[in-house]
Structure formats: structure tokens, C-alpha cells
Amino acid sequence: MASIRQVQVTFDCAEPERVARFWCEVLGYVVPSPPEGFATWDDHERSLPPERRNSAFACVDPSGAGPRLFFQRVPEGKTVKNRVHLDVRVGTGLVGEERLAALEAERDRLVARGAVHVRTLLADGFDESCIVMQDVEGNEFCLD
Fold first, then answer.
1. 25-54 burial: b if 16+ Cβ within 10 Å, else e
2. Single pTM value for the model
3. Domain count of the chain?
4. What percent of the chain has pLDDT over 70?
5. Strand 68-73 with 8-13, pairing
6. What is the maximum span of the chain, computed from C-alpha positions, in angstroms?
7. N or C: the chain end with fewer CB closer than 10 Å?
8. Strands, sheet with 130-134, edge to edge from the N-terminal-most edge strand
9. In contact, 110 and 133? CB cutoff 8 Å
10. Residue 17 resides in a domain
11. To the nearest whole percent, how much of the chain has pLDDT over 90?
């Protein structure tokens, strides 16, 4: 059996560049260089037929360790809860009040960038605290 060497996470969305730039802020990712032959992404977009413009965008982990995130425009809006979501691991190794404070600080940072705080799930003796959020288009993710 062949081993998987790379994973890309794909988001369906209405505004790919907007959502990609939000996730760059969340994860410290960057927008990759435009394709060869183009000085900027705007130059590349202008070269596409009108129906293909602004239809996709991507961001990458500058260290190369994390998966590439790809955002593609789809005509329909989000109607139900995600079946898959990202856990942003900001509280790794922390417990109790220290963990909750780290999660809340990240929540506040992301709300200022357009995220929505859905609910905070407090530690219950089995699971540690986590915070359920939505990105700029309503896709759920957790601060864990």
C-alpha cells in the first residue's frame, strides 16, 4: 500500500480569497507565490475568463509542515453543520484556567478578524475546555 505524503484541506465557499486570508491569520499561513509568468495574483486573475475569476484561492504553511488549504467558490451557501472541521490547537499542554485563558485570548483575536464565537465548552472532568467558533462564512472550527 502506498503511503499518503501530503494532505490538502478544501473549503467550499462564496468568497475564496476572503476565507483564505482569514485562515492565514488564524494559522500563520501565507499566500503562495503567483504562478510562473505572473507578477501578482491580480495579474493572474485578469488572465482568466470572467467566469473563472475569483473562483479559487489557497494558502500554505510557510514551514511546509501543515497541509495546504484550498478554497473553491461554489454556488450554494452553507446550510448545515460541517461533517469535518478543523481543531486549532492553541491549548496543547495546558489545563484548567490556564488553558481556558489561552483559548479565550485566541477567541478574542479571531473575533476581531471576523470569526464568530458559538459557544464555550468548559472542562467537565473528562474533556478539557474548548471553544466552538465559525469562520467568516460560517464554517465551524474549534479552539482546542
1. bbeebeeeeeeeeeeeeeeebeeeeeeeee
2. 0.82
3. 2
4. 97
5. parallel
6. 56
7. N
8. 86-88, 140-143, 130-134, 116-121
9. yes
10. yes
11. 60
